[in-house]
Write a structure and sequence with these properties.
78% helix; 0% strand; flat
């Protein structure tokens, strides 16, 4: 009975190790240690992919500039709300939601376009650095 328990314990440890081995391998990869923000060199893109990604990022840059200007105007409205005698909580929340919705929409569009260019393996690698693509 003890041998069976030890065997079950060893098998479960082996299975747990294999489940986390992929993440451990990538987290300790040389790219992770030397990674530059929003650099896609670790994906080893071919020429076609590289051109498509460049086009996406150029369009993204233009849209992000528009978003930044719109966000600045909305933040100015938030400041004006704070200065008023009576604080309008609903309007404040509405403006904040608009800012977050615009950011989420812009981010989703860009990620969708990048996703369509990448292979399955490249998507897996890209997912580890998804946080740096957040629109703020």
């Amino acid at each position: 009975m003890i041998k069976l328990k030890i065997l079950a314990l060893l098998c479960s440890l082996f299975l747990l190790n294999s489940l986390y081995a992929e993440d451990y391998k990538f987290n300790n990869h040389e790219y992770k240690k030397n990674h530059i923000h929003k650099n896609l060199d670790y994906l080893n893109l071919d020429k076609k992919q590289l051109e498509k990604i460049k086009d996406i990022l150029i369009k993204y840059r233009k849209k992000y500039d528009k978003y930044s200007k719109k966000k600045a105007l909305k933040e100015q409205k938030l400041k004006e709300l704070i200065k008023q005698e009576n604080f309008d909580k609903e309007e404040y929340e509405e403006i904040l939601e608009d800012i977050y919705e615009d950011a989420a929409e812009l981010e989703a569009k860009v990620i969708k376009r990048i996703h369509s260019v990448l292979t399955v393996e490249q998507r897996k690698k890209f997912s580890y650095y998804l946080k740096e693509w957040r629109v703020e």
